[in-house]
Amino acid sequence: MSTPLPPRAVRRCAGSLNSLHATLFFSPDLDREFGALGFTDPNAMRLAARVAPLGAVGPGTVAATFYNYNHALLARHFPAVWETAGPAAVLDARLRVVDATLRRLLGDEAVASAELAEAAELALRATEGCTRHARPLYSGNADLPVPEAPHLRFWHATTLLREHRGDAHLVALLSGGLDPVEALVSHTATGKGMNPRWVLSSRGWRRTDWEAAVERLTGRGLLDGEGGLTEAGVALREEIEEHTDRLDSAPYEHLGAAGVERLTDLARGFLITAAGAGAFPADLIGKG
């Protein structure tokens, strides 16, 4: 009989893996590699890098699977991005970015270490518990071949686990009654979400959209007069995270408590190293 997972073990492990996955989107290596393909718009580069496993899709598919992006922004980039480079070329470039980024942030010694190879195999074992139904971004990535190099295997596995949880999170947000901008505003209000400046520049919303969402959430008693979460707002955000945890528990239960603990420790160690090497902008997180 397997040992039950400790409370929040899923969330702790997923959080570190998600952050390691996200190093791609803040990497100067992405600008270099995608620039060589002909991309000039940073938003187009980052969107294409995440969308490519779905194929040459249009803005409607991206809006549905990304949830909190403005369709108007997506329509400026899709399907036009595929005229710059097709999904296959984008995926090849994405792996080159990951290789360069992890080597730069972690160092060649860590990339070649037994610990990183162990983390890769633990994360891949966890993905054996993932499911495809109602998970388009996970399923698209799951169709891709697993790379051979351990550091690329690890990033591939973090991507599968990140998108598996992300697809589940959309269900939780819908159940929680939050529209795309309300989801962003309430997450930022927790102090753990992106700074509004980053949200507005990357998601395509205007300041007036943000302010209208603040007004709606305040009217529902979820935000106070200062833009912070009320007791009801805190409870709703926690309910959404717990709902996501439940929908995302299968891969971590498959890995088992000892494996999850070990993977969390390894992932956190790599994440601390990456963050210390400048993986993320200093003003990325916070209420602004």
Outline the secondary-structure elements.
Layout (H helix, E strand, L loop, with lengths): L8 H14 L5 H10 L4 H10 L7 H8 L4 H7 L3 H4 L2 H20 L1 H4 L2 H14 L8 H7 L7 H26 L4 H10 L6 H8 L3 H13 L11 H17 L2 H6 L1 H20 L12
Q: Helices and strands, in N-to-C order?
A: HHHHHHHHHHHHHHHHH
Low-pLDDT runs: none
Structural class: mainly alpha
Radius of gyration: 19 Å
- What fraction strand? under 5%
Q: In DSSP terms, counting alpha (H) and pi (I) runs of 4 or more, how many helices?
A: 17
Tally of structural domains: 1
The major beta sheet can be summarized as: none
Please count the beta strands (DSSP E, at least 2 residues each).
0
How far is it from the N-terminal to the C-terminal residue, by CA? Answer: 47 Å
The rough form would be described as globular
Mean pLDDT: 96
Estimate percent helicity: 55-70%
